[in-house]
Design brief:
The protein is of the alpha+beta class. It is built from 8 helices and 16 strands. The radius of gyration is 20 Å and the shape is globular.
Length: about 350
C-alpha cells in the first residue's frame, strides 16, 4: 500500500441545495474509509459497500492468512484467483514494465524483512538481502488462466502498494451501478471523485506537506479539485523506522533491496483510475525526481504534483503541465480535518 495521507476537504454545502449528502465511514484493509454521495433515493449503501470491501480483502490482503494472495505466497496447491486478483496482477505487470522495475510487487519478502509487512523485522545484512534478491522480479511469476505459475517457489506478491487505490475504483464502480453520479470515495487516503456536488461545486482534497509524522495530519501544501478524477500520494513521511540515527522509509528499491534514498519526498499522481494513480505513485517515488520527470513526459495520461527537497533542505514542487488546472489553492500553514466542513 502506498503511504498516502491526502486529506479530503468537503466545503460546507449550500443551504439551497435540494439534496443532502449521505456520508458513511468505516474500517477496511487496516485503515479507515470515508464516502460521501448524493442519492435522490436516499439509500444507505454501507452494508453492501462493507461486504464488497470484505470480499476484496479476502482476495488481495497479505494480512489475512486465508486470502487468495496469502495462499499463493504460501504455495498452497490449486489456488484459483478471482477478478480482483487478476486486475491487480495485470495492472502490476503493466506498471512494472512501464517503470522499468521501479514498481515490483515481488519485493514483498524484502519488505517483510525490513519490518514493513505482516512479519517481524529481521536483522538486515547484505548477504541476506542479496540472497532474497534472487527471487525478486516480476518476470519470475505469471498468470495463466485462473492460476499463478512461479519460476521459484520463494517468489511472493504484495499488492498493498496499490490495492487501496483499486478498492477505491471498485467502490466507485458500485456507486455508479446504483445510478449515483455525484460522490467522493476515500480509502486510506486514496481518493476518487465523480461529478460535482449538486450545487456545482467541485469535490476538493488537500495534499499534505511531507513532514515526518506517523500519527496526525500535517499542514497542507496544496488544495486540488477533482472531477471524474483520482489521486493517490506516495510519501516517505508516514511509514519509516529509525535505526542508529538513520531513517529508513518503507519504499524498497527492488533492484537493491534497500529503502530508497533520493530527494523526492512525496508524489501525488492524478489519473482516471485510482489503481493507476496508486501504483505509479509508488514507482515514481522509488525512481526519484530526475527519472520521474522523464517517465512522466512519456505518460501524458498521468498528472503529477511532486514535492522534493532542494540542496538547502527547502520544499520545492515539480508539476506536470496539467496540474495548473487541478490545483485550486496553494496553502502553507492552514490545517484541515478529514471530511469536516471548513
Amino acid at each position: 500500500m502506498t503511504c498516502l495521507f491526502v486529506l479530503c476537504i468537503l466545503n460546507a454545502f449550500s443551504i439551497y441545495s435540494q439534496q443532502e449528502p449521505i456520508s458513511i465511514e468505516g474500517i477496511a484493509q487496516g485503515t479507515s474509509y470515508h464516502i460521501t454521495y448524493f442519492d435522490k433515493k436516499n439509500r444507505d449503501l454501507q452494508p453492501q459497500i462493507d461486504k464488497i470491501l470484505r470480499n476484496f480483502d479476502l482476495s488481495v490482503s497479505t494480512y489475512i492468512p486465508n486470502s487468495i494472495i496469502s495462499k499463493i505466497n504460501s504455495n498452497v496447491k490449486n489456488v484459483k484467483v478471482d477478478a480482483y486478483f487478476k486486475t491487480c496482477f495485470n495492472k502490476a505487470k503493466e506498471v512494472w514494465k512501464n517503470t522499468d522495475g521501479a514498481f515490483d510487487p515481488t519485493v514483498y519478502p524484502i519488505v517483510n524483512a525490513w519490518g514493513f509487512g505482516p512479519s517481524k523485522k529481521q536483522k538486515i545484512e547484505k548477504q541476506k538481502i542479496d540472497s532474497m534478491l534472487q527471487f525478486v522480479g516480476f518476470d519470475l511469476i505469471e498468470l495463466k488462466g485462473n492460476k499463478i505459475i512461479k519460476k521459484d517457489p520463494r517468489v511472493a506478491l504484495d499488492f498493498n502498494a496499490f490495492a487501496q487505490g483499486y478498492s477505491v475504483d471498485v467502490v466507485s464502480e458500485f456507486l455508479k451501478s446504483k445510478g449515483i453520479t455525484s460522490f467522493v470515495v476515500e480509502i486510506g487516503g486514496e481518493v476518487y471523485a465523480n461529478g460535482r456536488k449538486p450545487n456545482g461545486e467541485f469535490f476538493k482534497v488537500g495534499i499534505e506537506k511531507p513532514i515526518d509524522n506517523k500519527e496526525t495530519s500535517n499542514p497542507l501544501k496544496a488544495i486540488v479539485k477533482l472531477e471524474n478524477l483520482a489521486v493517490a500520494t506516495s510519501g516517505n513521511y508516514r511509514r519509516f523506522v529509525i535505526e542508529d540515527g538513520i531513517k529508513y522509509a518503507h519504499h524498497i528499491d527492488p533492484k537493491t533491496g534497500y529503502p530508497t534514498k533520493n530527494n523526492l519526498l512525496s508524489a501525488s499522481i492524478f489519473s482516471k483510475e485510482c489503481i493507476a494513480s496508486d501504483a505509479n505513485a509508488t514507482g515514481i517515488l522509488v525512481m526519484g525526481l530526475e527519472k520521474a520527470k522523464i517517465f512522466l513526459e512519456l505518460h501524458s495520461e498521468l498528472q503529477a504534483y511532486l514535492i522534493y527537497s532542494d540542496d538547502n533542505g527547502k520544499y520545492q514542487v515539480y508539476e506536470t503541465p496539467g496540474i495548473k488546472a487541478i490545483v485550486s489553492e496553494v496553502v502553507e500553514e492552514k490545517k484541515f480535518s478529514l471530511f469536516k466542513d471548513n
